[in-house]
Amino acid sequence: MGIALISGASRGIGRATALLLAQEGYTVAVNYHHNIN
């Protein structure tokens, strides 16, 4: 398939999207940011 870059893939819609695309055969690159404050 293709390559997908998912921003905010650590939870919620981003995570679900990343998992679905991976199951469909995409190479998935994820990005997230955690702010302690």
Automatic annotation (TrEMBL):
<dbReference type="InterPro" id="IPR036291">
    <property type="entry name" value="NAD(P)-bd_dom_sf"/>
</dbReference>
<dbReference type="Pfam" id="PF00106">
    <property type="entry name" value="adh_short"/>
</dbReference>
<protein>
    <submittedName>
        <fullName>SDR family NAD(P)-dependent oxidoreductase</fullName>
    </submittedName>
</protein>
<dbReference type="InterPro" id="IPR002347">
    <property type="entry name" value="SDR_fam"/>
</dbReference>
